[in-house]
Amino acid sequence: MTFQVGDKVIYPNHGLGIVERIEEKTILGTTCGFFHLRIVANDTTVLVPVANVDGVGLRKAIDDAEVERLFTLIGDGKIDNHQNWKGRFKDNSDKMRTGSIYDMADVLKSLTFLSKSKSLSFREKRMLDRAKALIISEVSEVMRQKALEVEEQVDRALEKCFTTKVRNINRTQARAKVAPKAPVMVAPKAPVMAAPKAPVMAAPKAPVVAAPKTPVMNGSAPKTPVMNGSKPAVAPAKPVVAASAKPAVATAAKTAVNGSKPVMTAKTVKAVPPLVANRRAAARAS
Fold first, then answer.
1. Residues 6 or more apart from 142 whose CB is under 8 A from it?
2. Beta strand 44-49 with 30-39: parallel, antiparallel or unpaired?
3. Is residue 274 part of a domain?
């Protein structure tokens, strides 16, 4: 970017300056051109290398149309504030180094709004005063107005900005109270799978086998041997002869008259003992 003598330029962190002349100088065997700037704020002269214009951020002053845009930006109510002091100071310092009047307006709004709620540090307070002074000096030179008049306009724009900011905050809070809360979705619990119990197998009971009873025989039936200790005791079976047993002689069956079934009756014949029979036979023979 090239400038002509008499141009009004802005030198970052120095403010408005006027190009008084352009000359070449040889320094350490190197010849280069320089802009002689007279800073309006303190009436000092600054030499800026022509080749380093873009590096230092030297620019032309704004015109009348840009002044209206500037005041609109200051009063729009948009303020970005960092809660972290280090981050806020770094961002504001970078904006001040660009030399853009719109970046300086952002620094002016944020630090002025912050100063209403808390006290600023020394470095931030100095940055705030610097940003405000640079804006006032540039606008007053462009609009050809006194610095006090321009300062009043800047203050009114800042008050409008803060009023808009507070109104926006109140609206946001009111909407947050009225807006229904989002339902809280409870994640379903995973079903607890109970491990199947092992079946209890009942041991089969041994079948109870009843020992067969020994048949009891009348008369000559042998008795079940009784085991005493380790030696078997065998009781000799003796034939039992009933002396009084008398043979039964079957008689002719008589048919019962009053029953349909024949009733068999047996007539008992008394047995004669052999001794008596012999005596009877001897008596008959004699």
1. 8, 61, 62, 63, 64, 67
2. antiparallel
3. no
The H or E element spanning position 23 is: strand 15-27
Alpha-carbon dihedral 84, 89, 91, 97, rounded to 10 degrees? 180
Domain endpoint, select from 122, 144, 177: 177
The structure tokens 């540090």 sit at 121
* pLDDT tens digits for range 210-258: 555 555 455 444 454 444 444 444 444 444 444 444 444 334 334 433 4
Quick check: is 281 in a domain?
A: no
Helix (H) or strand (E) holding 139: helix 122-143
The answer to whether position 270 is within a domain reads no
Q: Can you read off the two tokens belonging to residue 41? A: 């704020």
* 58 token code pair: 């030297």
CA angle 129, 130, 134 (to 5 degrees): 120
Q: Specify whether the CB–CB gap between 79 and 110 falls below 8 A.
A: yes
Query: Domain total for the chain?
Result: 2
Full domain range(s) for residue 45: 1-61
* Domain's final residue, options 144, 177, 210: 177
CATH number where 9 lies: 2.40.10.170
Return the structure tokens found at 283.
């008596």
Q: pTM higher than 0.85 for the full model?
A: no
